Amino acid sequence: MSNILTIIRKNESNPTLYEMVKLLAAECRNCAPITPMQCISGCKVYKLKNELRRLSGTMDNPNYIKDLFNVLKNETRLLILQAIVNGRYSVSQLQQELKRTGCSYSQVTISEYLSPLMAVGLASEARDEYYASSFGSRLTELLGCFPEFAQKIPANSECYEETLLQSLLLGPKTFEAIEAVIAPKIVSRTLKRLRSTGLVKTSRERSYIFFYKSKRDPNKEPLTVTERKIYDAVTYDGLSVGKLSREIGLSKRVTYRYLRRLRGKKMVFARRIPKSYRLTCDGEKLALVLQNVQRLVEDTWESSQQVMQDAGGVIIKMGGLSNNAFLR
User: Fold this and answer.
1) What is the spatial distance between Cα 4 and Cα 9, in angstroms, rounded to a whole number?
2) What is the pLDDT of residues 111-140, one digit of tens each?
3) Number of neighbouring beta carbons within 10 Å of residue 275
4) Are 286 and 149 in contact (CB under 8 A)?
5) To pair with 163 at 20 to 30 A between CA atoms, which of 65, 251, 290, 302?
């Protein structure tokens, strides 16, 4: 199947799997097999269409996205997937390949690792040899952008972490806003996990209090020298007391006292900004990988449905995948 990807890359930078079928179908016109069996056994179009037909049934599952990510969140499975992307391997050959990476497993254990990969359409088996599907090959390329994928998010989960990471790509969110994304009862636990793995960060303070300069004319109120100094330092965009005290060279306690006086004279006003959570650099990288994987799944689903339609099958416009997306 890797040969298929090589041929496609020469023709188009990032085609969908359905476009790959169309591109490869053009080769069929110039193909002159000796026998019909040779055509079936060696035809790339036939193999890719069969893969998409199988994926159509596999992805028509309300829990497909969750199942897919739980399969991927295992370092040994990812090592096996990376190996079979490059060629066909028997279980004994995979055993030797894993030994080179320092992993020693029995053939029975390796077979157990392979089963979930095949169950979600990432791998296939023929004549006791295992290889990555076109879908599996593309997905492996995406995961290569973040090698620590399996280490950063918990295995065998409900994928709350993945959901939240993608949500935070849109910008920082408060605790209350996050409760609208995932179930409120698991927000604290999910945030704790993401912070412990360095994917999400926030300030230590529970909330920020910013002081803003009002539009009141300062000439209408008598101000002391210190009040004037603090008033001039406050901006219309707002400043925290910590930053303000550093700028004017006074302690926070003294700064607060004078700010209270200025608030009494309606020269400044305060606004509380709730604590928010945002992605770290690693968190943003992983969230982008998750987003791209989901797009690949959706592209593969749509391609499989188009192949089914071409074959006279029934299109499932609102199949299981429509309920699988992390974000809509």
Assistant:
1) 9
2) 999 999 999 999 999 888 999 998 999 999
3) 14
4) yes
5) 302
